[in-house]
Structure formats: C-alpha cells, structure tokens
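so the lab meeting is tmrw and i was supposed to have these ready like two days ago... anyway. pasting both below. for each one the top line is the aa sequence and the line under it is the structure tokens. i havent really looked at them closely yet so no promises
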Amino acid sequence: MASLPQSGILLEAEEFQNYGGWILDSQFDSEMGSPYLLAHGNGKPVADATTVLSTEKGHYHVWVRAKDWVPDHHPGQFTLTINESTLDTVFGTNNEDWSWQYAGIMDLPHGDTSVMLHDLTGFCSRCDAIFFSLEDTPPPSENNDEARAWRRRLRELPENPVDAGSYDVVVVGGGIPGCTAALAAARLGNRVALVQDRPKLGGNASVEIGLSPRGMTSTLIQELSQRHTDGDLLAKQLLDAEPNATLFMEYTVYDAHLVGSTITSLDARHARTGREISLSAPTFIDCSGKAVLGIFTGAETLFGQESKSMYGESLAPAEADDMHHGHTLFFRTKMANAAVSFPVVPWAIEVAKDYSDLRGQLREPGLENGPGPFVVPPNFVPDPTADMRMKGPLTHFWEYGQWLDPYTNGEHIRDHLLCAIYGTFHNVKTMEPENYANLDFDWVAFVAAQGEFKRYKGDYVLAETDIRDHKAFPDAVVQNAGAFCLHYPGEEKYDFRLRAWEWDERDKKPYDIPFRCLFSTNISNLMMAGKHISTTHIGGSNAKFMANGGQHALATAAAAHLCKKYQTTPRGIHDNHLQELKATTGNLGQGIWDRKSDNRL
C-alpha cells in the first residue's frame, strides 16, 4: 500500500446526488472493479450528472477513471466541471481501457465543492470515479484486492463485511428461477434472503431486457411473471409483501466461505453505497444463471459443448469445444414526426459493415420478434444455400460472444453489440434517406440478455437422449418442456448475427427433470435452478428457458424446506425423503405448458 496515495477525496460516480441523464451500470463490477455512470443517449448527449461534496482548502491533483471504449475513435467523451470551472481534459479519448486520466491541479475551497459530468456525444461515455489528492501519486489502476481495500478505506467503509443475518435459505439471482425459489420457500414458512445484483427483478424477463418466460410454467411462475403497465414484473411486489422474504437489491456476490464442502456464508457488495454484507444459511440455491457460487466455492462445473460421443447426442459436435450461447442486446425504433439526424459512426460501421436489417426488435417487454426497417444493401447477392429460417425477424438473431469468456468479456460483448446496432441503424438511414429520414431510436438496452455460462455438475448430467427418450427417473421432481434451441455464431463479416439456429421440437411433449441435476455433486448444501443446472450444452438448450428454470426452483425450494425440517443436505433429501420432496413440490403448483404460446416465433 506504500505506493498508493494515502489520503485524498474519492468520489465514486455512483455517489453522485443527481445522475441527470446518466445511468448506473453495475453489471461489470467483477470485470473492471466498480459500478460506473454511463451516458447512454443513442447519439444524443444526456443531461449532466451533478453532486456536491465537502472539501478542505488545498492544492489538489485531479484524477478521473474513465474508458475509451473504441480506441482511435473515442465515441464516448465527457468533461468535468468543478465549481463552474471546466477542466481542459476530455475524458474517454486516451486510447486506453479503464484507467485513471490525470486532469491537472485545482485549488479547492473549504466547504462545498460542486462537481458536474458533461456528456459530449451521447455514445456511452463512462465515468467510474474522481479522485482529489494532495499527493502526486496516481491511484491504483488494477482491479484487485489492494485497489478494493484502498477504495474502502477512502470511503470509510468497514474493512470486513457486516453481518446481515442468518436465514433458512439464501437464494442468489433474482431472475424468474430466483424469484420463484424465494417466493416458494417463503410461502413454505422459511426465512429467505434473495440477493439480486440489478435494480429490477426478472433477469432476462425484467423490464431492463424484456423477454417472456418460455417452457413449462405453473400458477406461481405465472403469478410473479405478470407485468405492471410500465413493463416491470409483479415479482417484487409479491416478495415485498411476503413476511418471510428479505430482498437485497443491487447486491453483487463477490465471495463465499466454506467449512469443508459446506457453504457457511456469502459476501455481497451494494452497487450504490459500496456496503459489504455477509449472509449465512444452512442451504443455498444458486439461480444466477452464471454458477456464481460455484466460482467461489470450487463446485464442479461444465462449460461449452460436449462431443457427440461423450453422451451419444445427435446434435453435439464431433469434438468438444468451448463454444456457448452468446449475449443478445435488444432495441426498438420508431418513426418521428420530423427528420432525425444521426451522427456519422465509422467506429460502429467497422462492426456492422453494410448490414442494414433492423428487424427482430423488442416491441415491448414480453413481446419480442418485432418487425423493423430492412434495406437491401447495394450489390447484394442472395445466398441460395442460406437457411430460410434465418431470414425471419427474430430478436435473438442479434448475438455475440459465443467464443469469448463470458466472465471476463461481458462489457466488450455488450459494447460490440451496441456498435452493431448503431452501425446498422446508420446504414438504414443513409441507404434510403427518402424512407428513413425520420427514423429514430425508441429504446436500446444497455443490459444484455445473458447467454450461457458455466453449468454445475450434479450427481446426474441431463443429456439430449434423456429428453428425447423421456427417460424415467426415480427421482423425477418436475417437468420441463419446449424445443432444443441451439444458436450458432455468425461468420466473420457479420459476427453479431447468428449463422444458424436449431429449433428442434422433438415430440413436443414434456420430459422429467431428476433431482440429482439440481444439487452440486461436491458442495454439500448447494442447489441450483435455471440454465446452469447439471446438463450438457445440448440438454441445456431446452432446460434454459426461464419458465423451465422456475420449475427447477420449485423443487429446490421444497428441498430447502425439507433440509431445514430434517437437518440434512439436498443429497440427504434425495436418499431418505424423496417421496415427501415430490409431494411438497407438487403442492407448490402443477406444471402448465401452453405449447402454442411457447412457440410464438
């Protein structure tokens, strides 16, 4: 720590009193070290973010942690104004990833000091923090424990997480599976903590993203998946009203602790305050979709595609590899009453090339696959061998990151998709200005719909053959339904569009999920629900549907209840109380599958 500034004023961007048009982006905390403010204006500069802080009179060095997210082009630029004096430095222009940019020396008074972030472009300027120092030593540039401790000390936060209580079960992840697990366990009489890293519940179904839950649903899943008029899910209202449930919103899990093979507690950090808490329980259910607890506990996991011979899967590749489903970014356009200008975006054209098809929009939360402008590019020659299925206006055809590590490249994947959308939008407007001069963005998500991460390994790994053959499992606890849905990454030219898509409805009948797929094979008190259950890549392409994940969640909630009742582990429930588990799960609601609704493509 001797090489770091020992004193100064650290102003985290999330601490600004008025965000203006900037938005808090906390989804890449584990990658770059902190939440940050994002000027997401789709080419229109957003309103200033402002705050006031208390300072002592002095001669301060000023540092700003920012990112030039497209080096050499600098699409996201902003300035910093302190006490109505704008610094000369334009941030986001240094051709570097997240780094501290030096902005010079400024005299600050004793008392109130006003600070303002002024966006110049509307194209995702981003500011993490501002540091005022009496020393000329730069702040820590790395995302590591030393940098975390430095920030914690300057913010006068406790060195260790604060005990936030002990619960009967802790659920991680507030998507459809997590909300289902928390609500079901609470209604069974258990004290439940639900840890969600976003300000909204629902995961890929949340109002931030907007997909609709598919697969085998139930009355409870349908209840919490209803939407308010603003598109937000009813889930939070239901959980807030449940006396046995406690919500920890905007908390990101960053560590977990074990005794032997048993998790005793997890640590989580609040996005806006930096407050760190510890939650303990005898049972944990991971519904994050990312196997978050598995990363911190050493749980056995699976990743990528298994080979055809490994499980005898007809849809698997000949050789195993790390290809997985990528992320998707949704958007919606509109026709304004007058012409709408849009900046020249050469940095986005580098990604989009001459692509000019804006079909596949999210029409509203829960209603995807919408139409949009489509312009045939000059000198276009259709590919006679192209799959006709790929010509439809489907939302999920915008996808990227299938060959990248989703844990360390999330921000890059999101940014690449933003470039693709902005470049395509520019192409449509410039190729046919007579038709699309009035075209404008209505909404572009800044939170990507999450694709595939690691999957847990349970005592059984569900495979394609189990689903096709309707294998009878003695420990079947719920059913799933729907098609095998496999996405294949785009070619070099349009790497943000799927090359092919497999939608195999098999015999269109539900199939059984064994309980052994819902608890970790080597972490004794860890269960999972959602797309990261114990399954192959092919099997997971069906089990991944959100309503299917809700079914897993019902079984894990019932199991957590019985773990408390019998003071045992999930495997103990499997070995000694299986019939009671089936009955308890069934009492939480029978599965419902509306195949016509599920196949709304």
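ok protien two:
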Amino acid sequence: MDVDSNEVLKPKPMKHPTADLLDQCMNLIFHFIKSVCFDEEELKWDKTKLLYTDMTQIFEEIILPTHASHHVQFLMFYLISFKNSLAYSFLQLLWRKVSNPNVPNILRQASVLFMASLLARAKFIPIIILKENLTDMTQWIHGYISNQDGATVNYDSRVHVVFYSVCQALFYLIAFRHKDLVNHNKGLIFLQGLNLAKIVTCHLNPLKVCLPAVTSNFASVTRHYQLAYCYSVIEHNARNTIPLVYRNSSGAAVMSMPVQLETYFPFDPYLLQRSNHFINSLYREYDGSIPESNGEDKKDEAEQQDTVKEDEDDFLMDQSNNSLSSFSYGVSPGFLQM
C-alpha cells in the first residue's frame, strides 16, 4: 500500500485540544508574519518596521503583564530574528523597563526574565550584544550594591526583588553561555572584569534566593574559570534557613522566611508540533555541559548538587526525589498531555 509522503511528513496534532488549537493559531500567525515581511525571501524593511512597532505595543500591553504566558511570545522571537537591529531594539526596550524605578516591580521582573531567556536561547543574537547586556546588568547590580552600603538595609527579599531578578538573569546567562563567552575574543578577561565575586559575596546574598539549578550551574562555571567561589556561600545559606526578623519602616518587628525567585523563563523549549519549524533553526538548545571539577572542588560541588545528565536539554531541572527531569514553562498542569 502506497503512503502519501505528505501524510508521513505531516506533524501529528497535539493531544491536548487547547494545545492543538494554539498550535494551529501560531502556525497561521507565523505564516502571516513571514508574508508581510518577505517578498520572495527578500526582507521588506519598511513593512517589517511597521509590524515590529505594532507587535511591541501588543507585547507591552498584553504579553509582558501576563504571568507565565505560553508560546505566544515566540511570535516576537520570530519577528526580531529577521534583523539584528530589531533584536537590539527589543532588548533595549526591555532593559529600559528593568532599569526604570518608576515601572512596577512585577513588570521589571518580567522584563529581565524575557531578556535572560532571549539572550540564552536566540541563535541570531550576536555575542557582542550578549556582552553588552551582561555589562549593563553588572553595572546596574554594582550600582545597587553601592547604594545599599552604609544604609539601613531591609533584608526582606521582596523589597529587593528586581535586584535579585537581575542577579539571577546574570548568573543564568553566564552559566548557559559560558562556552560562547570564553571562546570569544578576550572572553575570559571580559568575564573577570564583571567582578562576579563582589556580587556573590555582597550582604544582599543573591545566591540565597536564586533558583537552586541556576545557583548550582553558575557555581560550577565560576569555579572552573576562577571567577568566583560560590560553594562556601551556598553551604552557609543551606545552614541558615531560619526565619529573618527585622524592623520595618514603622518600627514594628517583622518575621519572614527566605523567598526564592520564580522558575519562569519565557523562551524555554517550544513544544508545539505544527509550528515549531519556524523556531527550530533559530533556537539554541542547552547542551548540558558543565565544566568538570577536580580535587577538593569536585568534592565541594558533589555536596551541593546532583549529577546533571549531559543529554538533558533544559538548563532548569526539577531536583526533587533525587531525579533530574527537564523543566519547561510549557509543562504545566494544563499541558501535560501535549
């Protein structure tokens, strides 16, 4: 019996009906974006700029304020892949929100999550843009730390949530892209110039509230390149999990438990089957390669983390029950059967 080759190559529908509908919608919109921006593989720049303007407005008004949105943000990912200037403009838009104290903290936090995920995953963003954004982040972090020195510090992590979110974005990017950074011209000198040790050991203690997977991978990378030594801080944090008691602005005693940052990274792996061909060639998978340890460092690291499988895609792992399973924003209760 002959089988139609088109039927063989046709992607299977998603099992979850909502996911399947989303997949079909995404496929249609991807086709629309391409038809607007290209004429026989030639980029129509004027129309692309107009579409970018419209889509950034939609992004700011709808996507960015929506908590843990699924897949829709990849429409922006696809559009800005057409030209480096679009990606640069989009990153600048996000950074202006992060660094603007007049923007609500929840939007500043969401913006830096989008920045980190985009810079980690997008193959089309040049390394020079990555380094520029890392520089902006570290300068802002060092400035924030300096402003806290000598002042009465409120140690409630919720007060400094933007600071911790930027720190986590920085740690995530260095751990995720360390190979590209080191292999680039004078990359190790660049990383040394970020003064990561000062950030790790500052009194605000960002390693305490960052995701364990981010902290673990960052610690391994920075130890390998001798950029910072995180394990003593991690060990100290593990021993000190008692509630924090401090006085608020009105003088009342307040007790709070340490709060970890959320695990949402908007451009985690794209799971939709029909439309993923628009994204696959633009998308960087996590290769799972963490620099190997030697001697005492290896012993220290073994005490802090489980072994990470090299063939796992995702950087963020669920470390419960001594097993590592890929974390993805798409694997939510509503999408378990995708």
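from a quick look at the 2nd one: The chain is about 50% helix and 5% strand. Strands lie at 38-39, 42-43, 244-247, 253-256, 317-318, 325-326. will dig more after coffe
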